[in-house]
Design goal:
10 helices; 35 strands; globular; mainly beta; single chain; Nuclear Transport Factor 2, Chain: A; about 750 residues; Beta-galactosidase, Chain A, domain 5; 3 domains; 27-stranded mixed β-sheet; five-stranded antiparallel β-sheet
Length: about 750
């Protein structure tokens, strides 16, 4: 044996032990944790100016209810158990002060406007039942109330226009199960295997054909997960117009293509064998094909985003700051998310941006589907704001904000994590250029934007509402639709109205229209509306007159009146349309903000329709009007149940008034046509179902403001690309190699339903 061999083996063993030790030590040494989030959502006694727009606190809501209970001289029943013949509080929300008051306070050193609430009350227990709206104040200790109903709507609001309370839906359900269904026991048992718990009801709206009607088709489904796509073929028309529940009646029944006078006639026809029965296979409790339970196990984790040095935005009360942006936010019970006092680089560019309405119009050969025109603001886009699931609805590391509301109860309710805010790297450059001509360099800016989000689940549909703030001064309003498609029982010529989604399921064709209010204040309150576009002109080439050149030129037009500024849904609209300030940029151009709409809307309901005026905002892809305090919204929660005599008709806003150098509002309508298809099972995806608008600076600045972003990257061929001071990306292995501080997963969406 070679005498050196033992020494070689010993040295080799030592080296191996050293390497293994280093590996073990390195494995035991964790990367440092990323910086934690800065102070987020401070709920303090601060009197920040943004609080003029803040939602009511739970304590303020309680004080308003106590005041109303003690000062109206009538008994107020909790709306959650109120009968139609009772008096109750339907909702309590913030009464936003007038714009003039707010601007005096924000900009002119004026007094803080008194803080007030708007209370909507149903008075069913009096000789003249009606809906009354009161302004109650000042908060937090109210001492007065004033009836503003006539001032707002020109008269009293008739009682039949009131949105249905949850208690009324429950009462209709009890009526159907205990009274109506008792008239057809054989049919229900043998055809539906009815046991009082295995059917679910879906309402339709509006309720009838004439003012004063409260006659509703209720569509029956199997009571399983995702019941919206499990129709059983039975629909029942209930007259619930009487304030006396004992007077409610079934006035028509529909089953599998045939109409019957009532449940008695349906039972008789079935017993006599005169009904064509389509028995639906009983679905398991999880819904089978409609279940959203994943069909595959978890595998590799999807990508996550994190903030290595903590969030770059801050939230204090209802004020958000992000780089050059700041804005105040709130949540209306009826219309949902709304923003106020939106500023870029300290200058206000918009006073208000808010959702107004979400409309859907359905088609079917079943009565419930063919008569449905949902106006979701009546149900409550804010009321039905969903608790958000961390990591799916928003990034896991987003900031989640609780909101509070008082609707259909005497006590405020908390909606945990119903808003989220996060900065998102969109994975593409906001701008870039690679130069290989004359000089060699690269310049670019990551497209990182702040997203402010809420999601409303109104019945079968989920609307993802986003407001997005970009580093170049642009704002995007976007809505994405998901949830379940509405369906009818497939029979006869049903395929004229949609596609077959399952054995007995017709996915009904439907339109979606979304309306926004955008109160831009570009360089001040007074603006004008200007349109720029292009046209080709034919000229002879100056250097070669025998040759013709077609060159595009700029066209310009000031739109002087509201009629000129009202663009019908499918009409051609100038591709550059902007609010112009009374000031100019360095290059002599009027400073402006351009409105750019993304929409795939279907057709608007014909104007000859008896209910069209109630949704006449949907006639227009864009309408710009003078801003008026008496025209705060494009629609009303009362239009849903009486569209034939609308409480607010947007078409009346457009009366050819001059809009040059005035305080203006843009009413933007966007939407899409949905023809449900087999890939809408188990439910609809957001991909391809996103629409909205952009507000973009147009000569507002002297150059792109994002050039001042700290995120810019620039280097040349002559520089050391690995030097951190030259190229921040070279430092990422050091500055971004930290472990995210992911909080424990929690979800409170099933609490206090």
């Amino acid at each position: 044996m070679n005498p050196k061999l033992p020494y070689v083996l010993l040295v080799g063993a030592a080296v191996i032990i050293f390497i293994l030790s280093c590996m073990l030590l390195s494995r035991g040494r964790q990367s440092p944790s990323c910086e934690s989030q800065p102070s987020i959502v401070e709920k303090t006694g601060s009197m920040s100016k943004s609080l003029v727009f803040a939602d009511l606190t739970p304590e303020e809501m309680v004080q308003v209810v106590r005041y109303l209970q003690g000062n109206l001289g009538v008994q107020l029943v909790d709306a959650s158990r109120a009968k139609p013949s009772d008096n109750c509080i339907a909702s309590v929300d913030l009464q936003v002060p007038t714009k003039a008051e707010v601007l005096r306070f924000l900009d002119g050193g004026g007094a803080r406007p008194p803080r007030e609430a708007l209370a909507v009350l149903y008075f069913g227990n009096q000789p003249d039942p009606n809906v009354t709206e009161y302004v109650v104040g000042p908060l937090p200790t109210p001492v007065y109330h004033r009836d503003v109903t006539v001032q707002k709507y020109g008269g009293k609001v008739p009682y039949h226009r009131r949105p249905m309370l949850s208690s009324e839906y429950k009462q209709v359900g009890v009526f159907l199960k205990t009274v109506a269904f008792s008239a057809a026991p054989t049919f229900l048992q043998e055809v539906l295997e009815y046991d009082s718990n295995n059917v679910a009801f879906q309402t339709t709206a509006p309720h009838g054909f004439h003012s004063g009607d409260r006659i509703t088709w209720f569509v029956l489904f199997q009571n399983v997960s995702g019941f919206f796509v499990h129709p059983v073929g039975l629909e029942v028309l209930v007259d619930h117009s009487s304030l006396d529940i004992s007077q409610w009646a079934v006035i028509r029944v529909f089953y599998n293509g045939q109409y019957y006078r009532d449940m008695v006639q349906l039972e008789s026809a079935y017993v006599q064998g005169r009904i064509s029965v389509e028995k639906v296979r009983k679905a398991p409790r999880d819904g089978d094909f409609s279940s959203m339970k994943p069909r595959a196990p978890w595998a590799a984790l999807f990508p996550l985003q994190y903030e290595p040095q903590g969030p770059r935005y801050s939230i204090r009360n209802n004020l958000v700051r992000f780089q050059a942006w700041s804005f105040a936010f709130g949540m209306s019970v009826s219309t949902g998310l709304r923003l106020f006092d939106i500023r870029h680089k300290g200058e206000r560019v918009a006073y208000e941006i808010s959702v107004q309405e979400a409309l859907s119009v359905y088609g079917s050969n079943c009565p419930g589907g063919m008569s449905t025109r949902y106006m979701d603001g009546s149900f409550g886009l804010g009321r039905y704001t969903s608790p958000l699931v961390r990591g799916v609805d928003c990034p896991y590391s987003a900031t989640y904000v609780d909101t509070h509301s008082l609707s259909e109860t005497l006590r405020p309710s908390k909606r945990k994590a119903s808003l989220c805010i996060f900065e998102q790297n969109l994975g593409s450059p906001l701008r870039r250029h690679y130069s290989n001509l004359q000089s060699l360099y690269y310049g670019g800016l990551v497209n990182s934007a702040l997203v402010f989000r809420s999601i409303a689940t109104v019945g079968n549909y989920d609307y993802v509402w986003d407001f997005i703030f970009y580093q170049n001064g642009a704002i995007e309003g976007k809505v994405q639709a998901t949830g379940y498609p509405s369906s009818s029982f497939l029979h006869g010529d049903g395929l004229r109205y949609g596609n077959r989604l399952w054995e007995h399921t017709l996915g009904m064709i439907n339109t979606h229209f979304i309306n926004y209010k955008v109160d831009l204040d570009v360089g001040g309150v007074k603006n004008s509306l200007v349109a720029h576009d292009m046209a080709f002109e034919m000229i002879r080439a100056p250097w070669s007159p025998e040759q013709q050149i077609e060159r595009p030129r700029l066209t310009k037009k000031v739109l002087d009146t509201e009629d000129q500024a009202a663009f019908r849904l499918q009409s051609k609209m100038p591709r550059y349309i902007y609010f112009a300030a009374n000031s100019k940029n360095k290059w002599g151009h009027q400073r402006g903000y351009r409105i750019q709409i993304t929409s795939f809307a279907g057709d608007h309901i014909p104007e000859a329709s008896s209910m069209e005026r109630a949704i006449s905002w949907a006639r227009y892809q864009l309408a710009v009007t003078r801003r008026k305090e008496e025209e705060p919204t494009s629609t009303s929660i009362y239009n849903q149940n009486d569209p034939w005599t609308p409480t607010i008709a947007f078409a009346d806003f457009i009366n050819n008034e001059t809009i040059t150098n005035e305080d203006l509002v843009a009413w933007i309508t966007t939407g899409f046509l949905h023809i449900p298809h087999s890939e809408d099972i188990p439910n609809t995806v957001t991909v391809g179902n996103a629409v909205g608008f952009l507000l973009r600076p147009y000569n507002y600045y002297d150059l792109d403001p994002s050039i001042y972003s700290h995120d810019g990257v620039f280097f040349t061929n002559e520089q050391d690309l690995t030097a951190c001071e030259i190229n921040p990306l070279a430092c990422l292995p050091k500055t971004a190699s930290c472990l995210p501080n992911f909080p424990p997963f929690t979800y409170d969406g099933f609490q206090n339903m």
